UniProtKB/TrEMBL annotation, chain A:
It comes from the Bacteria. GO terms for biological process: phosphate ion transmembrane transport. Belongs to the inorganic phosphate transporter (PiT) (TC 2.A.20) family. It is a multi-pass membrane protein. It is found in: Membrane. The lineage of its organism: Bacteria, Bacillati, Actinomycetota, Actinomycetes, Kitasatosporales. Its main location: membrane. The keyword Transmembrane helix applies. This is Phosphate transporter. Residues 382-404 are annotated as: Disordered. Keywords: Membrane, Phosphate transport, Transmembrane, Transmembrane helix, Transport. The chain crosses the membrane at residues 6-24, 44-63, 83-102, 133-155, 219-238, 308-328, 334-353. GO terms for cellular component: membrane. It comes from Streptomyces caatingaensis.
From TrEMBL, chain B:
The chain crosses the membrane at residues 12-31, 52-70. The keyword Transmembrane applies. Keywords: Membrane, Transmembrane, Transmembrane helix. The lineage of its organism: Bacteria, Bacillati, Actinomycetota, Actinomycetes, Kitasatosporales. This is Membrane protein.
């Protein structure tokens, strides 16, 4: 560790911050419906997810040798500045979508950031266009469709089989099943996404000549990446949890079970077959599918539409920020400093805006009396102005900030 | 551009069939153990053991899922 330059150090810290936002952003995937059906209380749910993410980080022996899965030509002269710029772009986009309460793929943000930074600093030959289509675009389109159809069919079936039974009698069983499915999603997330950060840090160490090329990540990298993602998961992106758990559709225990089981199955089946689908899109799709599967169930398409807009914007937006950051960082030490300062300023500003209308864990828990879930923030209206009518555009009363 | 339609189709088929099967089997377990609406007494021993077999099958599926993550 003795030859870590200041720049490499900055890249490592930035990678861990990204890892934190990744956990923070993706808690919703495993836990949103688990919380909204009342299967687990909010704090218990995020604690369980955090532990499983941490465990997941240590589980896999298959090391992320390439941070981008072949999307970036990593031998084309990727320097620490480029990785740094890519990470800043990904973090900024993750925070913006969190502010808007929209689930978007953290992996896509990372890919977008790295692509943007590479385009600016290396040129078009540094990016493999075909890999972008195969590994990002097609999975992003296929994931919600596959997961949605699976969850719709499963929801229909379970309601048909359990007809004639009281919902109160079956709810306990469904909740127990949902916890198991959510645990699998959390574990898979820790394994996949903590690996990405380890890959980024290891690549930075390789480019700095600290460790030999193609070597496994040192233990301290594994530990710190696992802890960062677990901490982010535990703090929980409550805005996104509220959107997925309550905003998209009203989830009952049977639907929550069907949605979460569908999500776990699609994630594991797709990565096992070798056509990995994006976790965020899978989970969002399965929740919508479960919403459609119940008789009388509704999907709030205005919320779904905003979500899709965010998905489409993720790659270019993170890329744009990262491209600008790469341009600055290339200018030398003052440029890197400027990017770091700007990145901190933007993150701080987003955090300040979020405090104006905080979303606390209890907002995501099942309400004692049903009320339309509202997830509108000013930033969200700026991203995609929602139609003026509809149940999902009722602004929530400013909740009392609870920082327990 | 070489899109791997076969893999995508396989993902679709396996995902839908597995999800529906798992949810279906687990629901049978729930139905077998939950009290019948306004019914007289609990379920018979046969129904009960069938329901537990359903739960066991789902537990095995979760175990296989963990195996897939670890392997």
């Amino acid at each position: 560790m003795e030859h870590i330059t200041l720049l490499i150090g900055i890249v490592i810290v930035t990678a861990l911050v990204f890892d934190f936002t990744n956990g923070f952003h993706d808690t919703a995937n495993a836990m949103a419906t688990t919380i909204s059906t009342g299967a687990l209380r909010p704090k218990v749910a995020v604690a369980m997810s955090a532990v499983l993410n941490l465990v997941g980080a240590f589980l896999s022996v298959e090391v992320a040798k390439t941070i981008s899965g072949g999307i970036i030509d990593e031998s084309a002269g990727i320097r620490p500045e480029v990785i740094f710029a890519g990470l800043v772009g990904a973090i900024v986009w993750n925070l913006l979508t969190w502010l808007a309460g929209l689930p978007s793929s953290s992996s896509h943000a990372l890919f977008g950031g790295l692509i943007g930074a590479t385009l600016v600093s290396v040129g078009t030959h540094g990016v493999h266009g075909e890999a972008v289509v195969m590994k990002v675009l097609i999975p992003a389109v296929a994931a919600p469709v596959v997961a949605g159809i699976a969850a719709t069919a499963a929801t229909r079936l379970t309601y048909r089989l359990a007809r004639g039974r009281d919902e109160a009698d079956t709810a306990r069983g469904y909740r127990a099943g949902q916890i198991a499915s959510a645990a699998l999603v959390s574990l898979a997330h820790g394994t996949n996404d903590a690996q990405k950060t380890m890959g980024v840090i290891t690549l930075a160490l390789v480019t700095g000549g600290v460790v030999a090329p193609h070597s496994d990540p040192p233990l301290w990298v594994v530990v710190s990446a696992g802890l960062a993602i677990a901490l982010g998961t535990y703090l929980g992106g409550w805005r996104i949890i509220q959107t997925l758990g309550k905003g998209l559709t009203d989830i009952r225990p049977a639907q929550g079970f069907a949605a979460q089981t569908g999500a776990a199955t699609v994630i594991l089946a797709s990565s096992h077959i070798g056509f990995a689908l994006s976790t965020t899109q899978v989970c969002s799709g399965s929740i919508m599918g479960a919403g459609l599967g119940r008789k009388g169930g509704v999907v709030r398409w205005s919320t779904a539409g905003r979500m899709v807009v965010a998905w489409c914007l993720t790659l270019p937006a993170a890329g744009l920020v990262a491209g600008g950051a790469a341009f600055l960082a290339e200018q030398g030490d003052w440029g890197v400093t400027a990017v770091a300062v700007l990145g901190l300023a933007v993150s701080g500003a987003i955090w300040l805006v979020s405090r104006r209308k905080p979303v606390v864990p209890d907002d995501a828990a099942p309400a004692s009396e049903p009320e339309p879930a509202g997830v509108v923030t000013q930033a969200l209206q700026a991203v995609a102005p929602p139609p003026p009518a509809g149940p999902s555009v009722t602004a929530p009363e400013p909740a009392v900030a609870a920082t327990s | 551009m070489n899109i791997n339609w076969a893999a995508l189709g396989q993902v679709f088929g396996v995902s839908v069939v597995t999800t529906v099967a798992l949810v279906g089997v687990f629901t049978l377990g729930i139905v077998g153990t939950a009290p019948r609406k306004g019914g007289s007494g609990g379920a018979s021993a046969l129904v009960r053991s069938g329901a537990y077999a359903c739960y066991a099958a789902c537990a095995a599926a979760v175990g296989y899922g963990i195996y897939l993550i670890v392997a």
